[in-house]
């Protein structure tokens, strides 16, 4: 399988504090990479670098064989642990907002046929995440799980090739998490995504990922804790393969409890 993303000798330093050092990673197209590691190791920093929110102080990142554009682009979508939806917009409004900003940066508004196409795309994506019946409600009327579904749909509507997930299910109840695991697995397969997910849940890392990376420091200086940065200390390829889904098996369970 070809490499979609290649990180070569990535360092992130804040003054004399080294957060990441010598990170070398090749990420295959279609893989689902789980990233685990101790708190403060630099997992979110690594995601921000891949997203383009932050530039590495050293090293290079290649996307499809070309240098990664320095700014966040539509090829990379992201979902954070805390709901990144706009409270003053309906579900459909949240979906359209991203498209309007991308497709009509000056007006931030789509008109006529463009708007109708955008609404159709947004509704299809809402169906895919199990929110087809919720287009006219506001985030305050949704459970945490539903808001996270909306955040995932917002990220996917721009058709990213890489989906970055930073503790996406960390704030959800266990039952809802299980539903979300099913959903993300289905979306990964149906949309041929490459996913990089940070999680604190080792079980989740192994059950969802095709590869599990541990980010941690290889060396420590007790007198200067920030002298050395973290890197990929374990890198496990799993044999997990997604089975093709049977026709008609497109159902998605939606939590409507509103209590998480
Ligand atoms: N802008 C910044 N300036 C200085 N230090 C920073 C900055 N951003 C992050 N850090 C430091 O980088 C280190 C890694 O932070 P990061 O959030 O990436 O860790 P993490 O592994 O995701 O942690 P957690 O699992 O607790 O979310 C932390 O020590 C943090 O304080």
User: What is the global morphology?
Assistant: globular
How does CATH name the architecture? 3-Layer(aba) Sandwich
Largest sheet: 6 strands, mixed
Low-confidence stretches: 242-260
Pfam families: ABC_tran (PF00005)
Organism: Sphingobium fontiphilum
Keywords: ATP-binding, Nucleotide-binding, Transport
GO molecular function: ATP binding; ATP hydrolysis activity
Which tags fit this structure?
6-stranded mixed β-sheet; NitT/TauT family transport system ATP-binding protein; AAA+_ATPase; ATP hydrolysis activity; ABC_transporter-like_ATP-bd; 4-stranded antiparallel β-sheet; Rossmann fold; binds adenosine-5'-triphosphate; 260 residues; alpha/beta; 29% helix
Structural description of this entry:
Keywords: ATP-binding, Nucleotide-binding, Transport. GO terms for molecular function: ATP binding; ATP hydrolysis activity. Residues 5-242 form the ABC transporter domain. The protein has helices spanning 43-51, 91-103, 112-128, 144-156, 174-190, 202-208, and strands spanning 3-14, 17-28, 32-36, 58-63, 66-67, 76-80, 162-166, 194-198, 211-217, 230-237. The protein has 260 residues and is an alpha/beta fold. It is globular. Bound molecules: adenosine-5'-triphosphate. Adenosine-5'-triphosphate binds at residues 14, 17, 19, 37, 39-45.
